[in-house]
Queue: 2 jobs
Job 1
Amino acid sequence: MYHEICKKMIIFLLNVNNINGDFMNNDFLSNVSLTTSLSENINLFKQIFSNDFAFITREFQNKHLNSVKFCILYFKGMVDTELLNEHVIEPILLGNLENFSLNLIDELQYKIIVSSDITPSNDFQTIIDSMIYGDTILLVDGYDEALIINSKSWPSRSIDEPESAQVVRGPREGFVESILTNISLVRRRIKNPNLKFKCKELGVQTHTKICIAYIEGVADENILSELEKRLDQIEIDGILDSGYIQEFIKDAPYSPFETVGANERPDIVAGKLLEGRIAVFVDGSPFVLTVPYIMIEYFQANEDYYNNFLFASFNRIIRAASGLLSISIPGLYLAIAAYHQEMLPTSLLISISAARQNVPFPTVVSIFAMLTIFDIVREVGTRIPTPIGQAINIVGALVLGEAAADANLVSAPVIIITAFTGMTKLLNPNLLGAIIILRTLLLFASAFLGIYGFILGYLAIVLHMMSLRSFGVPYMLNTTSIKEQTAKDAWIRAPWWIMSLRPKLIGKKNLLRQPLKKDKRK
Amino acid sequence: MKSIKVFFLSFFLSILSFLLVGCWNYRELEDMNIVAGTAIDKGINKEYMISMEILEPSIGEDTPTTSRLITSEGDSIFDAVRNAIAISGQKLYWSHNKVLILSKEIAQKGIIEILDWFHRDSETRSDVYILISKENTAKEILENEEKKDQITSFNLQDILANQKNLSKAPDIQIWKLTDDIINEGITAIAPAVKLTRLNNKTCPEILATAVFKNDKLIGFLDESETRSLLFLRNKIKGGLLDLNPENQNGIPTITLEIFESKTKIQPVTKGNELEMNVNINTIVSIAATKSTKNFVTNEEVIKLEKDVSNLIKANCKKLIEKMQSEYGADIFGFGAATHRREPALWKKIGENWENVFENLKVHITVKVKIKNSAMTAKPIEVGD
């Protein structure tokens, strides 16, 4: 019902009823095929890649076989030219091809070209796709078949520690923009033939490679087929980051909560795969998606599993409490200060009342304004170049803090509330979007109805979260349980020798993670 | 298209229902006059004169929070409270009212109306401390000369909250006073307050007890009688006991500190007669001594324990007799104990409890245990 209304609203607001246009504009390619004439073939390619300076054709002949011409086609910058020179062109130029026994294409493939990955093909679509992806095409005069030689090589970022999630203890590798590197990073951690990578392409214009990774025998097939079904439904011109897919395959599209996880660290992805989750790698994005994603994962950090379990549990509780506080503090303060003054201790009442003397705006306005200003400063800090950012931050801090209170624009308690909300908010960077929406909701609910509004707002949030599902798995899984094997990795992180089962419902295909013994430490 | 219209309509209707109805109870803190304490006297022109200590909040080290006193009159309590708006300019906020001081005249006339308002109004609380002004008007108590820059009501609240270490006045909140008035077999008490002089300025002092019968004040008890009353009511949590075992000119030579005390009241029937057994169990320690005699020997401790129990017993007995003969008010709750333990008997005698109480036989047993002598075992002996 709600989704229907939203869809209709979008159509209504944009005032478009008919969207026409050629969405799949590559009909041309499926109608052409290679001919036996080399020059015709080259012309065909030149026609397709007209106005493209990076498109290179290089024709050459064998020393001993003058009758046949060869041509390689590739894109400058996408291939390893040294490899091409030494292992493709040189052998063909200098080798003795005079008395070839096989079909020339096969002769080249099996005896001449020094390359680990080489495929003959006469499907024009495949040839074009691989060429765009950095492969080199070898055409031979007189054959309507081409050899696709793997020569991919392009500049890519080195493997660094991701800035979005740094750790004190734990591996410091982070994903990069190349899907092949990313897959290798995960495969290096799970050396198991059961770790499967299913690849496909998305994006009609961009042909972005995406890859579904899972451990066969651990991951739930229903979730896998559901994921594939949702991925197949995506029809879009381009995928530039995994965020696109994340939004497309989300369970509750209009919810502020994420039901698809994204992170930048191979150790986290490996951990999730081992729990029975499924990962989606997207070429060009260092963020790898994992499904199903449940609420408690907001508060789980990879470091939890590497540190002492007591310390890790403490940290996790702190994160959860901060998440809770950052959505409730502004609303709760407002409800008590504006409706239920009898709940305040008298001394606090006096100091708040004193701080509010001569402040022109109502508490609700000043809290809302200060929170918005804080978010402006935060956004400025992340968006602009670092050297300017620092200056802006200092000004922002001054305006937010001292000056606003000194000028009696806001009261000191409001600044404390803002600072505390801001701080606790930043402890859960993944939850940021949800926190901003929910705390505003609670703030206004409290402004209208006091504590009743606050509680009603909270009820609405809890009901919403309870009703959410991520790929069939309840969103609040394990958060309300007190059983050992379900509570072990929810609000606390139990010692490793206790965590002998995978999370139920997610890894239900093979729950056993380590043999069940009485005392694992002996 | 229809569902969009319905959506917008319901959206705006729900927003407007918040914004236009006017039942917006949003109230900023600085728009309120916070009442810290209240004093009720007999009015000059009207029935009641009510004085309220209003907080004037401010923060910072140079400007402490101060208070001012406003006074208004009215024919009823609520009338007087509302009339205060004419003086203060803002509506008063009662949730943080800490003390209620009643003058002697008001208390003698009956306090039902005052208690009713404090229980009925939504802002006032029933955990307000109640005080009866013994000698001065209630308003004078709030006019604290000694600590001009402090809030008298909070000061009074602190005094009452710390009575557990002194045990010279009961700390009674409004709900307790009302309870005692409502319940059968017990009559109400309240702490008494009077002005004393400190550094040549007046300041309030809370000692002793006011005794009620029904809702009317009938008299006062002094400090030592209050101690006995607290023993009998099982309300002793601390305080000191002075003793004079060596009988030196009546000056107490040893002081004991009460650590724990438990009192049990047990009604027993002997034939047709109702009697009360009162068991007092007290644990004390030796807190100070004036003499050089060593009390920390077995014989001395046993003797001391006996002396203390005799003292407590005698004091309690004296107080019970006084209440029986002079006031006829069962402030100890003997009737309530009978009601609890012997409901069948209470049905018969409850109607006539006042007469029964006046002739009630009370047996008091006091057991005192000296648990230690604090940090020293021996007294300071004067050397040559």
Job 2
Amino acid sequence: MIIIVTIAFLGIGFAQGRSLWQQKNYWEFTVFLFFMVMAYVFSFLQMKGVEIPSPLPPVKDLFTKLGIL
Amino acid sequence: MEQVKISPFQLGLLVISIVAGSNLAPIEVLAKRDTWICIIMAMILGSIFIWAQTTLATKYTGKNLVQINELIYGKKIGIVINLFYSWYFMQLIALQIFDFSEFYKNLMLRETPQPVIAIVFLLLCGWAVWKGMEVIARCSEIVIPIIILAVIGTLFLIIPNFKFTNFLPYLQITTTDLIRSSSSLTAILFGEIICFLMIIPMINNHTKLRSAIFIGMYLGGALILLGSVYVIAVLGNTMEISSYPLLQLVRLIDLGEFFSRMEVLVTASFFWIIFLKIAVIYYAMVLNTAEIFKLKNMKPLIFPLGVLGVNLAFILFDNSGDHYSFIVNGYPQMAIPYQFVIPLISLLVIWIRKSLATKKEI
């Protein structure tokens, strides 16, 4: 699975990245590369089964917590 | 960025898809047999939300959310707020994707891993986003009327199973629960219309902007209300034990041994309406991020941001219970600042600036 995903990322990344580089859109290329790397790292960690902590704040019920209701 | 134009009619249809696309959320759980009252209350509250959002849009005609925030708060604070919006849109996609993939996994594709369903569906939405907003809008012109007819037609067949006593005793809900449920429903059903602030500059007739959004919102709300009334009238208290009461309801249709297994029609409707909803939010998220980074073309970001959205869906929630608890308890508090508080603060800033400017002139 990891190999298939890596190949997919490399393929799409190469095709899109090369097109941006050839058009001399270097800023676009940099932003694209940044998000591609981020997306790949997260996908890789997920596939490896690494526990990533949820970024959501532990909001249970703010109304009750604040004593509004 | 691409130069696209959509009509107010198409915008209205897309608003219907955003509102009615929330039908997989656990709506009936919040207020049980008084859900219909809460939906009506939510429509009133939602009108205030939409008023704030559309007022902001009409004050800066031709500008999208990113540009409006930068104009109001300045470049630095504007970028921070826009990054938060980008994060919010991504969370919305993650929520919708999890909802959708869970629905299909539980009901149809039991052997398929949930991430596979999510990835395949997001690829489809990504393709629609790649083709552009005009394509998504044209798609809504075909899909939404068919869905409305299919759902109303299907629900018409269940009328023989109606038990009006299921509504009794009505108004048993306490004021506290009424306010809590209504605000939750407002955030779940109507607040997400905020993503249209990214799309509004694409409309070819700005004079009809507000009416298009309001009509779309009320029609979408009416569809949700209709579904909820039917669920209460037919299923009664048993709706609480079903994860998808609307589907449970349609399963009961059996007219003359001919009209049966109608859930296929409703499931197909769910598929299309959620496809449109995710495509619109996905488009708004990609455009928002591309505008923040001042990209000439948003297309390079479609794939990586979509992959991040799918990843986020499975990072946020371990299981359906987790997801369900978040929707009921945490989502409104997380979403209302983006949907209502920030637009309202923006309007206040505009108003203060205007009054200060007139004072100086005097």
